[in-house]
Amino acid sequence: xxxxxxxxxxxxxxxxxxxxxxxxxxxxxxxxxxxxxxxxxxxxxxxxxxxxxxxxxxxxxxxxxxxxxxxxxxxxxxxx
Length: 80
Prior knowledge:
CATH class: Mainly Alpha
Mean pLDDT: 92
Shape: globular
Strand content: under 5%
Structural class: mainly alpha
CATH superfamily: lambda repressor-like DNA-binding domains
Distance between the termini: 9 Å
Number of domains: 1
Low-confidence stretches: none
Radius of gyration: 12 Å
Number of helices: 5
CATH architecture: Orthogonal Bundle
Helix content: 55-70%
């Protein structure tokens, strides 16, 4: 089981690879600072804000629903 923070980090890594973009490009596209994005990916942030996830989804040119549409976010896969 993953924490929500880990699931967000894994989903970002998955989408970076899938879409062939860098963390820096995602930061530029989303308006989330590169350091914040790096901290999310390395799971040094304790609680990810929904507003940040919304910006990151936009950086991938996705809706939040599309971002969260992953088995990573199924309740049975999360340690809540």
